[in-house]
Amino acid sequence: MKCFLSALVVLTSASVACASAQEINLQQALSFSLQQNPQLAGYQFRRAALAGEQTTAGLRPETRLQLEAENLAGSGEYRGTDAAEITLSFASVIELGGQRDSRLAVATARQQQLASEQRVALLDLVAAVNYRFIALLAAQEQVHLEEEAQQLAQQLVDSLIKRVQAGSTPQAELMRARAALARTEIALEKSRQQAHEEALQLSAYWADSTPDFTRARGDLFAMTDAGHPGTETLANWQTRLAQNPDLALLGDETRLRAVELRKAEAEGKFALGWNAGVRQLQESSDTALVLGLSVPLVNGKRATGAIQTARAEQDAARFAEDSAKSRLETRLNQTFTAHQQARSEVQSLRERILPLMQDASRATANAFEQGRYSSLELAMAQRELLDTRAELINAALRAHETRIELERLTASAPSTAAEPTP
Fold first, then answer.
1. Which of 8, 316, 374, 422 is most open to solvent, judged by the fewest CB atoms within 10 Å of its CB?
2. pLDDT at residue 246 in the model
3. What does DSSP say about strands 85-95 and 271-281: parallel, antiparallel, or unpaired?
């Protein structure tokens, strides 16, 4: 956790100029979000509220000034106020059993729990910004892919126009090619709209509904530890799982319930009431000291219900913490497997499948120019190549998403694999 927070400090303390009107990088997106996210800003008010609770919890029992009049407005010799006796005294309570300390412990535990909640919110924000930034890069790659598809479709239409005019190709092939071109225009517009929506979702994390950047700068296909595939093993991730912020939050919940139980037990102990003052004796005009003590009866039984509730809530918190550990271990294993599969798919597509599809597309294009293949066969070869590149985009997106999930589960410093190499 300390490593992760240190990385965030570097991000926020770095000199960050406003994103250019054309592009934004991942570090800028994270910095803007950490500085201007409305959800994070709201924690200052909750901290102020808990500070007030701690101040109240630390107060000692109040001392009251009491004024008491006796033998007032009676009958006979007690008629009127001639026989009235006035007592002026101070009264308070002596707390036994550490009630004040237990109240302060509860207030402190709640502050610690809030700090853990803020760390969880911070980690969730960083993960979400990474997700959206990677999704924007993927959307941009899809736009480039659709632009290329449109260019290829346009080239095919131009070539077929010449062939139809020369009488070597039927008109129907040209009509199909033009219909395919129209479809690419629709697909391109949809991809551009998707990229625009991804940009809006990204800028929403720093409350900017009209972002001034038009694209994200980064390399979707850059993989972390690409040159060292054995460094990020499952065992390494499992070791770091102990830093999971949700586990820390559940641990704080368990500790809070424990101090609430001690508070309930302390409140079940006696609180000794006392009063001391001076009484004016009207008949003799003398004064006398007045002392008093009060002890509640069967106070412990009144606290039985509160103690039972607090103990049950403590047991429930412990059970939730133990259950969460098991679920997170399973989730980590599943995410690691998905990450490895996506990484392997990216590697296979880039190094084996895509080169073959590129060679096949070029060979088909050459054969088409020589009149040995039809336009349908050329379009099919080009579509297979484009589909392979789309698979590569999706595989790279999954690889980054699962990597971000692993980092979120282990509170690791955010990876910058999508950043371009300087």
1. 422
2. 85
3. antiparallel
